[in-house]
Amino acid sequence: MRDLVLAQVLCVVGSAWVGVAAKLGSAHVAFWIAAMLLYYLPLAAVVIHLNRQMPLEGGLYQWAKFGLGEFLGFLTAWNLWSYAIVCVAAILFVIPTDLAYLIGPGAEWLPSSRTATAALISLVVAAITLVAVRGLAVGKWLHNVGSLMILSAYAMLLCLPLWAIATRAPIHYRAFPWKTPEMSWFSLAVFGQMTIGALSGFEYVAIMAGECRSAARTIGQSVLISAPVIALMFILGTSSVLAFVGSSPINLIGPIPQTFRLAFGNTGFGALIAAVAILLPLCRAIAAASLIFTGLTRLPMTAGWDRLLPNWFTALHSRWRTPVNSILFIATLIMSLVILSMLGVHEQEAMQLLQNASTAHYGITYVALFALPLFGAAQLRRTLPSWLKIASAAGLASSLIAVLIAVYPIIDVSSNTSYAMKIGGTVLVSNLIAILIYRARRTTGLQNV
Fold first, then answer.
1. Which of 1, 45, 122, 134 is deepest in the core (most CB within 10 A)?
2. Does residue 431 carry a pLDDT above 90?
3. Which helix (H) or strand (E) holds 404?
4. What residues have CB less than 8 Å from 299, skipping those under 6 apart?
């Protein structure tokens, strides 16, 4: 139970989302509440019910395969796999920015240096690859430490107003500001990132349900424990960012390190506290990347068991019994994606490209998840309560909005059209490849009968 709760906090609570929500100003509380009611709670309810019925290794892939058929199950798994690859790249992309804030003004050049960024991320990818090969026996401790790190970072973030009072800093802080939200393409785009981006991840632990004790009971209970903690962290964290960043531009790659540096300063004892505080989300980024990286390697393995991917992906390490070929293959893809995302754009645009491409892929999997209680196999729908279908409809609508609005930028970009084409083209090409692979496997007669 402890491991599952901490893993969900680590997987869901990221440092970037309070910066994204802060772009809404005082309306962020209204949008967080809407995101929780229309997406967060429906997600928790659907995951709990499906996991109780099908606590299977492979999680959402197995659920979609059973409820929607083998082809849609494969596409769901493919998009979840693609999301995780892009998501790990996006998480790793914060490391140079966080490190620059950690070092101080002298390292401002670091995030904009493509060579330094690639070198730093390569080192981290090598490290999490070794952890993934060693397996969850070691990996879960890194993941738990990362969860404690982000909890500590958010505790410091939420306590920053007290520091401001002690130091008489001129800030305007309201824990729960309220402003009637204005509906626009911009606010809708932010809402899409606040749902699929910020509040997703509960089902991710179910991917490794086969490696959990009493999965049907403990995963459902762990969601109920982690949910209110995560919600409070996001709302109060956004309010702290707004208080200290004020009217300055928000760094969407590292809003929490930016806030710490603004709050504690660059000199004296405050600078030392800032360095320690910034180290926490930096370590969390590494641990979160490791957690998602470890989980996503199971997806091609289970698809290989179903003979929807080559058996090469099912090969296990002779000692640690982990899918070593899948691990190495995905590590290579992640590094390639990081390098490609940096071509011709600045670091914040590169980060948003990765983040929104992952949101679009992830959103497609959530469309499948919420479609299960509404349009899934009759055998599955008969066992689900009626109220769950209403919750699923709300979650399905939120997911569709997030997928469609992912091409709309919330920062200044070099070209809106190019930005939209890169994201849309990535998702389209990715799914076309999936369809071709599936058809090729059927042609060769290697699929399950």
1. 45
2. yes
3. helix 386-405
4. 58, 61, 77, 80, 81, 84, 207
